[in-house]
Amino acid sequence: MYFNRSRIGLLRISHQGRIRCLGKMAQQQPKINRISPLSAEEAKWTELKKIEWTDQTGRNRVWEAAARKTRGKTGIDAVAIAPILRHPNRPPSTLIILQYRPPVEATCVEFPAGLIDEGETPEQAAIRELKEETGYEGKVVDCSPTIVADPGLTTANMQ
Q: Which family does it belong to (predicted)?
């Protein structure tokens, strides 16, 4: 089974709740070596923006946000795939990825996902990312409306 090198592992979860590890898990655990400020000139993927706006009470406000520099003509940055595996003799199951995310210094449980390349449709990106991250080939059955993952675009967390 092929894994994108940034992935920690690939799991299959049956609809009865059984979890199975597919392929080899990474042996070495990732670790943060250094955290330092990033200048606007060095940033390849994001830029900081200052948003000046007026709220519903008429009060002027300022908001700081990060925006992707890579957004293409589709107006959509990335795709996330909710892959459902169907087998004639078994119940359906779902693939999930374990991926280390440096901003939160933790391994996260995620659907396969990735950025849309220039000239790609979201559907094409979904098929490509599924293959790159899991080794599976698939077809797009449905596509959600555009959603936002972190409206404040911060390292905020929740429990």
A: Belongs to the Nudix hydrolase family.
